[in-house]
Amino acid sequence: MKRIGARAASLRAAASVLAVAVSASLVGCGRTDSLERIRKLQDASHDFAATIEPLRELIASRPDDPEVQFRYGMALIATDQRALAVWPLQKALTSPEWEERAVLPLAQAFVATGSYDDAIEMCGRALEKRPDDVAALMLRSYTRIESRRDYGGALADADRVLEIDPDNTDALVPRTVALLALERVDEAAKALDTLEALYRDESLGLHGSPGLCTAQASFAKEKGEIARAEELYERCLEKFPADGVLISDALSFFDELGKPERSQQILEKALAEMPEAHSYRTALVLRLRAEGKKDEGEQVQRAGTTHEAPLVAAEAWAGLGALAVEDGKYEEAITAFQNARALDSTNSPQLLFSYADALVIAGRPDEALKLAESMSVPAHRDLVRGRVALATGDPAAALKRFEAGLLLWPNNAIARYYAGIAAERLGAFGRAIEEFRYAMRIDSTATDAYLRLARIHEAANRDEDALAALSFEPGGRPDEVEAMLLETRILAKLGKFTTVPPGVRKRLPAERLGAAVAALAEGVREKRGPAAAADAVRKAEGVRLDDPVFAEALSALIENLALARRSAEGLARAEVAARAHPDSAILQALRGRALVLNGASTANARAAFERALALDANQPRALAGLARLERAAGEREAALESYDRAIAADPTNAASALESAALLVELDRRDDAEKRLQSVLEEFPYDAEAAMALADLRLARGADARELARRAVEFRGGAAAKALLERARSADPESAKAKSAESG
């Protein structure tokens, strides 16, 4: 079945891992200057650039000296290489003597890498010792704004600065932006008037402020002055092409305006201005991939691997490995992670962890376990061992490992996510919901926890809860398209839409419109029946049912017409499409399905499926259709082979796996049937049909099936599931003893 949809080795996670972990201890080529001379250059002359190479040489010989690490980090920040400064400042932070000086520069470095939660934590650490530290409050206020998750906290920090120092004009900028984001427009207008009055007085130093520029553009947007807002954003971007807060706000504006191409240009320019900024590179790559431009995204990512700074190149290699994992190119992924490690002279714990996770996903658990033995961070060892246990079919052991790791690393979104997966597989859905929610709160972009949570709720008929999960911090999350499809189906099921919702249509890639229409039809059918679902497909705007791009919509039409006893119309539609595109494998397969539903001869239907397979030997619908014909004809072994090929071609289609499991039972291969059903439940733990089929098999051999039966009841298995649960309880030895005692 489909691999777990995590971002444990995702582009975003792998890139940020290196940003906070890969050492910058690089050996320079120049002569070694004394630390005293470096102090003079930095403290007296403020010539930080001249100290970089000497510091690199000192680090080679004194890697554990906190002052050397601190000064190297400060030199990197002073030369606008903040992303590279993270590791040396972290090293300096371990020394009580240097902690106070290193904590805020480290927070600044985290902001530059997009690690906002870490930056906020560092600011909080500084404020614990110095509650009225204006610099820490200001940085935390700006960081909360840039994270786009805590505008209330940003406002509170700015207000606290103004309490401490009423004349601090700098605090007015984040305060204004926060008020706008909180839709407190009247207050924001007054704050902006104050700012603009100050802006005219250049003696206050506000001239050229990116924060003010952003606030002005945001305010114009909030007032509905879209043309004016666009003009202001363009002016701001011309002045400050790589400012993080501005870019984040501008991307949101242009995306909402329906100009994603402009957003892409903004990111391209920002990356050109700051090629070491992994956050811009990552955002651009993810955007390109979401648009179906995988090759372009890979080129952008690969370009970073040639950067002259080893850390930047290592970040890019790690990101490239993550892309390969997502695309199922596991050997390429392993090679990329190896290249990243080759650029890391410090055996970075985080990079080691990401590499081990990639090995697990690639199906190389023994290598991952061996790597875990060399890990210096206990939490990492537990998490990797938990991942291996999960991948090898022992969710109970996996959950124990994750729990041990989370004791040491409670705010790790990936670990929370995998703990949720393990709980799902054990049928502990309350625990799974808790872990997924926790993972979402920590980092909504790290995993598809929001989507798995939504699927649990939807399967249990908690549709409003599912919609709430889907709406949690949208944008930049894994599987956004899948989320939109589920949202469409739920809204249609609730009767709120009979067309693809405008909000979904606006965000949906054009090539997935057919899938959205199919999801719409599924929801409409649940609410109003198959005839209404067919009408919804026919009336869908922008859908050409004879175009292979919209094959999923045509498939939904064919199926719903058949359920409405109008299969002849479905066949006519399929015939038109197949004639219009005789070389389309998917349309030939749909024609075969329509023939079957309309009662055509087996020979005609088989010919259609075989025509599709001649065009594409791995066309999953054709393989599944052929398997059904072979099974009906008593050709069971041939049918099983076709089912196996269909599952391999489309691991996300549970129907083929369920049908093949039933066929395995017919062949008296019950152990194989159980394994197949278990694989379905690993990917779709809330599939009531799979749970009931597996429970039946376990009951037949005298095994406990209560959890599976309870699962089927919870996830809308109906009266059959309730009857199965009674049978499972009666078959349980402990229940039998209790009943016997009661009767005695």
Describe it for me?
The radius of gyration is 29 Å and the shape is globular. Helices cover 72% and strands 0% of the residues. Among the domains are: 129 residues, Tetratricopeptide repeat domain (Serine Threonine Protein Phosphatase 5, Tetratricopeptide repeat, Alpha Horseshoe), CATH 1.25.40; 58 residues, no CATH class. It contains 43 helices and no strands. With 744 residues, it is an all-alpha fold. The N terminus and C terminus are likely disordered. The longest helix is centred in the N-terminal third of the chain and has 18 residues. The relative contact order is 0.05. The chain starts with 10 loop residues before the first helix and ends with a helix.
Fill in the keyword field for this structure.
Serine Threonine Protein Phosphatase 5, Tetratricopeptide repeat; 744 residues; mainly alpha; disordered C terminus; disordered N terminus; single chain; 43 helices
CA-CA gap between termini: 49 Å
Described by the principal axes of the CA atoms, the overall outline is globular
The main sheet comes to: none
User: Any idea what the radius of gyration is?
Assistant: 29 Å
Just name the CATH architecture of one domain: Alpha Horseshoe
Top-tier CATH class of one domain: Mainly Alpha
Superfamily at the CATH H level of one domain?
Tetratricopeptide repeat domain
The poorly predicted ranges are 1-33, 201-207, 740-744
Number of helices: 43
| Helicity level | over 70%
The count of strands amounts to 0
Name the beta content range: under 5%
